[in-house]
UniProtKB/TrEMBL annotation:
<dbReference type="GO" id="GO:0031902">
    <property type="term" value="C:late endosome membrane"/>
</dbReference>
<dbReference type="GO" id="GO:0005765">
    <property type="term" value="C:lysosomal membrane"/>
</dbReference>
<keyword id="KW-0812">Transmembrane</keyword>
<dbReference type="GO" id="GO:0005886">
    <property type="term" value="C:plasma membrane"/>
</dbReference>
<protein>
    <submittedName>
        <fullName>Uncharacterized protein</fullName>
    </submittedName>
</protein>
<keyword id="KW-0732">Signal</keyword>
<keyword id="KW-0472">Membrane</keyword>
<dbReference type="GO" id="GO:0072594">
    <property type="term" value="P:establishment of protein localization to organelle"/>
</dbReference>
<keyword id="KW-1133">Transmembrane helix</keyword>
<dbReference type="InterPro" id="IPR002000">
    <property type="entry name" value="Lysosome-assoc_membr_glycop"/>
</dbReference>
<keyword id="KW-0325">Glycoprotein</keyword>
Length: 111
């Protein structure tokens, strides 16, 4: 990510398809899904800033054993910061460069 930026290297999602949330699952059990290496560059943010995005792009997660896409992670209205959080408040924000619409379609914002 660099010395003057922070970012997210990976996302791991742990879930259990034996849970009642997954009604009808034929292969119940604990699973791990992971982001693809290098796919999270959209979160790169200068140190001392937070990242804010109303509708970031969807993140595809792959099943750790098979490598097949098993989860689509859709985040909304996120604000994150890795370091230098003071008194429980976010630092000034860097806003993402696109805004999603209800259909999941994204449009760039021109400044």
């Amino acid at each position: 990510v660099g010395e003057s930026n922070w970012g997210i290297n990976s996302i791991d999602l742990l879930y259990n398809t034996a849970d009642s949330l997954f009604r009808g699952s034929t292969k119940g059990g604990k699973k791990v899904a992971r982001s693809v290496e290098g796919s999270l560059g959209m979160f790169t943010t200068p140190l001392g800033k937070s990242y804010l995005c109303p509708s970031p792009p969807v993140i595809n997660l792959m099943e750790s054993k098979t490598g097949k896409q098993t989860v689509v992670l859709r985040l909304t209205n996120i604000q994150i910061q890795a370091f230098q959080i003071e008194k429980g408040k976010f630092a000034p924000m860097v806003r993402c460069s696109s805004v999603g619409f209800g259909s999941g379609v994204q449009a760039p914002i021109r400044f």
